[in-house]
Amino acid sequence: MQQTKGPQKPLVIFFALGLFLVVMLNALLPSLSRTQQVPYSQFLQMLEQGQIVEVQQNATGDEIAFLAKEADGKTRYYTAGVLTETDLSSILTQYTGADGKPIVFGREMPPKNSSLLSFVFSWLIPTALLFGSGFLLMRMMQKKMGGNAMSFGKSTAKVYVQAQTGKTFADVAGQDEAKEALAEIVDFLHSPDKYRSVGAVMPKGALLVGPPGTGKTLLAKAVAGEAGVPFFSIAGSEFVEMFVGMGAARVRDLFKQASQKAPCIVFIDEIDTIGKSRDGAGGIGGGNDEREQTLNQLLTEMDGFDGSKGVIILAATNRPDSLDKALLRPGRFDRRIPVELPDLAGREAILKVHCKKIMLEENVNLTAIARATSGTSGAELANIVNEAALRAVKCNRRIVNQSDLEEAVEVVVAGYQRKGKVISPKEKRIVAYHEIGHALVAAKQTNSAPVTKITIIPRTSGALGYTMQVPEEDTNLLSKEEAFNKIATYTGGRAAEELIFGTFTSGASNDIEQATRLARSMVTRLGMSSEFDMMALETVSNQYLGGDASLSCSADTAARIDAEVLSIIKSAHQKATQILTENQDALHRLAAFLLERETITGQEFMELLEQPQLPVAETAE
Ligand code: ADP
Ligand code: MG
Ligand code: ZN
Predict the structure, then answer these.
(1) Using CA atoms in the order 422, 427, 429, 433, what is the torsion angle rounded to 10 degrees?
(2) Catalytic residue, candidates 226, 406, 435, 497
(3) Separation between Cα atoms, residue 31 and residue 28, nearest integer Å
């Protein structure tokens, strides 16, 4: 039971220390107060010196308070203990008081200090101070744990105002369609009357969907920055709480705050964590009750909202197909904004945005980098720019150049160079022929994209070498021939090993995987086999997260699919072997060149390939 009490411990110590201080203060206080306690002997001494003005004895007779006029001419109050038997009044008559007057004697003790006042000063104020500072301390600790934004009561939704997200649409490159759709929302928040007068109602919610790292969260922050309205941001996972009912309570709380702050934006990141489809959520028992409650609460709140008030709900997900249909119906997240992987122009724009933060050599060609990075997301591109900057620093340069960026692309795509890895000359030869095999098959098939780089420097990803193929321009459609040629290129590495060494290695495992995946989708999804025509045999879920394909056909059909896939791969492999056999001289020449250089560019490759037959430098044993 003692875990989870972490932050309380220092508080307990703090209060204990404070109380101790208050007690100590009270023990010291009498000596500091104006009535000073003195021994009886001092009273007698003062009596003899004729300093006493007045003496009062208390009812029990064991204490006196007296006023004395001292040498400096000031009068002070003192108290002293006396023995109860002492007959003070008779003693006092034997002495004269200060200034020769008789000493006044009475039995009315003056109140020591005003007891109420002393209580206030010695107990109430210190205690109040103590608790006050304790409370402040607690608030400070809570703030530290809850991040830098203001947190409100139960909900951990953070309120961002304009300045705090610090992002604008200028920070988001590419994604023009998404920006356009969101700009409309921003415009509505700025001037709602324009829309109201026409009778148009703004959509209540917009759902940003797309693969990870494409800038969904960034876009939402940019909207907040542009709109200049409060921005409530909460991650879906924050709704899912340990305690039953908390998630739903959070939702209620969040929307309550939002409606108070309207116009404003509520942003729910990774909404799939709560918005998962409710049916089929998990066999017997009916799935996750807590999550369902949270989702129901969200649906209810969204219905209860008056869209014209100006509360707009943005959400982001990379698993739109898993969302509950109820969330997607009109009146809820009826607007869907796709945030796709950037195209060539988009990638260049993203690179430009991120390169603004670093010092770039003047003649750097970002288009070439964008071309070499097809299929990467905005986050990966940001990472590439950062890697390039790191490399420049490593080389003691302040300015990033083209080779930094090129190397960074390879680092992000294939991992760091493993300079220390020792590869035997024999293995190096195999790798060189394997890679040239890929490149040669690719180059000789007219429809295949030319290679840009071949290297046999091992990488931390485990690759011993690789061939980088770069399409001249982004293509969206894949023809049957192109697909087949790609498979042939994948098999080119193995084909070269077989042709030259008469045997083969495990180096083709990745090629096999990719060739099979492509061949399979040709048959089951792309309708590129004669046997199955346009029949859909597989359904794909999670398209943004790699795509899990699941077969939907009979066992008999599945066997025929396998046979069809195999035949495609076999004929592609045959084609590759044929190409390499026809160009065996070039294969030897290029492999020898690669072995010598370790890395060659696409241009060098093409020049050497197109050279008239030179004497072959080397042959395999
Ligand atoms: P997600 O779509 O997974 O929410 P993020 O919005 O978190 O992705 O993006 C991660 C990072 O990638 C951003 O902080 C930004 O640096 C970079 N990034 C992604 N897309 C873009 C883009 N279109 N323009 C500029 N930077 C981008
Ligand atoms: Mg995100
Ligand atoms: Zn290979």
Answers:
(1) -120
(2) 435
(3) 6
pLDDT greater at residue 334 or residue 240: 334
Residue 486: both structure tokens together:
């790609």
**With bands split at pLDDT 50, 70 and 90, how would you rate the model's confidence at 115?**
low
State in Å, rounded, how far the first CA of the chain is from the last one: 73
Instruction: State whether the beta carbon of 216 lies less than 6 angstroms from ligand 1.
Output: yes
- Regarding the beta carbon of 379 and ligand 1, being less than 6 Å apart is answered yes
Q: What DSSP character marks residue 129?
A: H
Least confident piece of the model among 2-16, 64-78, 329-343, 387-401: 2-16
Q: Is 435 among the residues known to form the active site? A: yes
Between residues 87 and 151, the one the model is more confident about: 87
Q: Residues within 5 Å of ion ligand 2 by Cβ?
A: 217
**Distance from C-alpha of 438 to C-alpha of 510, rounded to nearest angstrom:** 13
Ligand 1 atom closest to 175 (CA): 23
> Is the entire prediction scored with pTM above 0.85?
no
Question: Is residue 378 within 6 Å of ligand 1 at its C-beta?
Answer: yes
What is the residue-wise DSSP string for 312-367? EEEEEES-GGGB-HHHHSTTSS-EEEE-PPP-HHHHHHHHHHHHTTS-B-TT--HH
Could you identify the atom of ligand 1 that is nearest to the CA of residue 171? 25
Domain boundaries, the chain: 9-29+116-145, 34-112, 158-338, 344-414, 425-609
Q: Which atom of ligand 1 is nearest to the CA of 173?
A: 24
34-112 — its CATH code? 3.30.720.210
Q: Does the pLDDT at position 177 exceed 60?
A: yes
Beta carbon of 235 within 6 Å of any ligand 1 atom = no
Instruction: Determine the pLDDT at residue 602.
Output: 82
Q: Which CATH architecture has domain 158-338?
A: 3-Layer(aba) Sandwich (3.40)
| 110 contact partners, CB below 8 Å, separation of at least 6 | 56, 65, 77
What one-character-per-residue DSSP string does 471-517 give?
Answer: -SS------HHHHHHHHHHHHHHHHHHHHHHSS--GGGHHHHHHHHH
